[in-house]
Design a protein that fits this description.
It contains four helices and nine strands, in the order E-E-H-H-E-H-E-E-E-E-H-E-E. By secondary structure, it is an alpha/beta fold. The model has no long low-confidence stretch (mean pLDDT 95).
Length: 169
């Protein structure tokens, strides 16, 4: 599956080596392999889950699919201004600037056990922001799962729960 990733230099700005996961989605077998791998990992871990939270935008490409296979809820975390209704809002630093995430105030129940899913972990800023939103809802992050991890940036060191990545670069 690592062979399917495409590195794109200087995107979205100079100095960033963007890891494009979309070639995985162009191959149905690779997509099925990724989903099945993640589902099996979650089941083997024995983690209690009430919801899978997928991060905007590529984290919720497979999130509903995985949640459905596990028989659990799916909750999106979106960039600010994309969700209707009352939302929790948290700012975070990315490799190339500040951004804001929101999550509906009614999306999670208090004390829910939540798995955070995203395509890539770099500095860990967006995943940490997701954990803060989940805590604002009174729920608990039990695990983080990423399709790709950029090891040199040590983003997992910031995260308050077990972290798993399918591909490490």
């Amino acid at each position: 599956m690592k062979k399917k990733l495409v590195a794109i230099p200087d995107f979205p700005r100079k100095g960033i080596m963007f890891q494009d996961i979309f070639p995985i989605f162009q191959d149905p077998i690779a997509t099925e392999t990724l989903v099945t791998h993640i589902v099996h990992h979650i089941l083997a871990s024995g983690a209690k889950l009430d919801a899978i939270v997928g991060l905007d935008s590529r984290g919720f490409l497979l999130g509903p699919w995985i949640a459905n296979r596990l028989g659990t809820a799916f909750v999106p975390i979106r960039k600010a201004g994309k969700l209707p209704g009352l939302n929790f809002k948290v700012g975070y630093e990315k490799e190339y600037g500040t951004d804001y995430f929101e999550m509906s105030t009614t999306a999670l129940t208090p004390n829910a056990h939540v798995l955070v899913l995203d395509d890539l972990i770099a500095t860990g800023g967006s995943a940490l922001a997701a954990a803060k939103l989940i805590k604002l809802a009174g729920a608990n992050v039990t695990k983080f799962i990423f399709f790709v991890e950029l090891l040199d940036l040590k983003g997992r060191d910031l995260l308050p729960a077990e972290t798993y990545s399918v591909i490490q670069i």
